[in-house]
Design a protein that fits this description.
- By secondary structure, this protein is mainly beta.
- The protein has four domains: 104 residues, Beta Barrel (conserved putative lor/sdh protein from methanococcus maripaludis s2 fold), CATH 2.40.420; 89 residues, Elongation Factor Tu (Ef-tu), domain 3 (Beta Barrel), CATH 2.40.30.170; 120 residues, no CATH class; 53 residues, no CATH class.
- The chain is built from five helices and 28 strands.
- The strands form seven sheets. Strands 4, 6, 23, 24, 25, 26 and 27 form a seven-stranded antiparallel beta sheet that branches. Strands 7-16-19-18-17-20 form a six-stranded antiparallel beta barrel.
- It is elongated.
Length: 443
């Protein structure tokens, strides 16, 4: 039996020749095949070649999804410190008098005049003199039995003097009116808070110093990317200053709050910076690669049986214990959102060019095995997330089946013409559809 349809409006079906009621074009005959289950299309081998039909087998394969983010280099706040005044006094000299200077631990920074310091040194000299004269007898002790010399030394330590400075005062038996402030740690001076000649009080800020041997990279992740981002993941990123060079860090923090203006979440990456190439303020482009399991979930088989620090992601151990850096208890990876099943099955995948996706459903065309001529069956499938050049298949296909990756649109168009279920018409077309609203039959 023959059916007649319009090449422009395949939903029009007639039992004989005539004009299309929508556009007026001549109807064309279409052979109806009741033997083949719909939706199927059988074509000659030559026709399949002309349609450039290409198939690949469905297979299980380890796949990764990639998340791209942008952000900026920032100071590592855990390596940011303040240098303060230990005594009341006047700054007579600032050896480091501008920001950006790289200082080492023990470098002299400031020369402060202090009356309080002079008085405390005089007390030490007197106490040491009494102790030496009395050879450690009761004369060197206070009424409460406290060693006066040692008590005065502790007072000077509280005022910021080093052991070497205190020893020098005792040897010279002459108090000094000035205190030299030394750097208690190394780094780059990023801010100078006082000027030469100003008076300071105990606790006033002198400098802010940052250790740039390790930095943070703050990246912006969109909501749709959050399922693939986890604490402890490696992140690779680049900066414009060093084209072609890739830097590696680990995610150390994912902000629990969403920025309602940008609709992004801040992701903090901890990055070693031993050569100082990364400068705070540099723009970066980062990538996270997440391996996916059979159900489309994020998996980390390398963390199976491991324990990880919740504060320092590079601390990973084979057994429970405490973090070597902060002392916090290690946790299992599953508490951080990783799937570490004993057997991590690879997902069933198809190339991204195989499914025809409408937004609500996905259709693939599968080559029917052992057919006399090339035959393709349309099949609705349930897809998981996309991973690079592949889609994960959750339902609808079996491993080894051949899916069309090239020519599938042509197959679908031919099936539409035959009014069988297709990508855009899941139920197929019925005879005698009325004209579209707002159109008139051609006379």
């Amino acid at each position: 039996a023959e059916a007649w349809t319009c090449s422009m409006h395949p939903q029009i079906r007639r039992t004989g020749p005539g004009d299309c009621p929508l556009c007026g074009m001549d109807l064309i005959p279409v052979e109806s095949s009741s033997a083949a289950p719909a939706p199927m299309l059988s074509v000659a081998a030559e026709a399949a070649a002309l349609m450039n039909v290409e198939t690949v087998p469905v297979r299980e394969k380890p796949v990764e999804t990639e998340v791209e983010m942008v952000g900026k280099v920032a100071y590592d706040e855990t390596r940011l410190g303040h240098i303060t005044a230990w005594v009341d006094g006047r700054i007579d000299r600032m050896f480091v008098d501008y920001a950006g200077v790289n200082v080492k631990k023990g470098d002299h920074l400031v020369y402060i005049y202090s009356e309080e310091l002079y008085s405390a040194q005089a007390e030490l000299i007197d106490a040491v003199g009494y102790s030496r004269a009395g050879n450690g007898s009761e004369r060197s002790l206070s009424p409460g039995g406290i060693d006066m010399a040692e008590a005065t030394r502790n007072k000077l330590r509280m005022l910021g003097l080093t052991a070497e400075q205190i020893e020098r005062i005792e040897e010279q038996e002459r108090p000094t009116t000035h205190l030299t402030v030394f750097a208690p740690f190394g780094g780059v001076v990023i801010e100078k808070h006082r000027r030469q000649g100003e008076r300071v009080s105990r606790g006033d800020l002198l400098y802010t110093v940052a250790d740039l041997g390790q930095v943070w990279v703050n990246l912006d992740a969109y909501e749709s990317d959050l399922p693939w981002i986890r604490y402890g993941q490696n992140v690779s990123f680049t900066v414009e200053a060093f084209p072609g060079e890739t830097f590696i860090g680990r995610i150390g923090f994912i902000n629990p709050m969403l920025d309602e203006t940008t609709r992004t979440v801040k992701v903090r990456v901890i990055v070693p910076n031993p050569d100082g190439k990364l400068k705070p303020g540099m723009f970066t482009r980062g990538k996270v690669r997440a391996r996916l399991g059979a159900g489309g979930e994020l998996i980390a088989p390398e963390l199976r049986g491991k324990w990880i620090s919740p504060m320092h992601p590079w601390i990973v151990k084979d057994a429970p214990g405490n973090c070597d850096v902060c002392g916090m208890k290690l946790v299992e990876p599953k508490t951080l959102g990783y799937e570490t099943a004993d057997v991590a099955f690879d997902p069933l995948v198809i190339p991204a060019s195989a499914p025809l996706i409408t937004g609500k459903r996905a259709v693939v065309y599968v080559e029917v095995p052992d057919a006399d001529q090339p035959t393709f069956e349309g099949r609705e499938v349930v897809l998981g997330p996309r991973a690079g050049d592949y889609y994960i298949v959750l339902e609808g296909l079996d491993e080894g089946e051949l899916v069309v990756v090239r020519g599938n649109f042509k197959i679908d168009s031919e099936i539409q013409i035959q009014a069988k279920p297709s990508m855009m018409s899941p139920e197929g077309a019925e005879n005698g559809h009325p004209p579209h609203a707002g159109t008139h039959p051609h006379e």
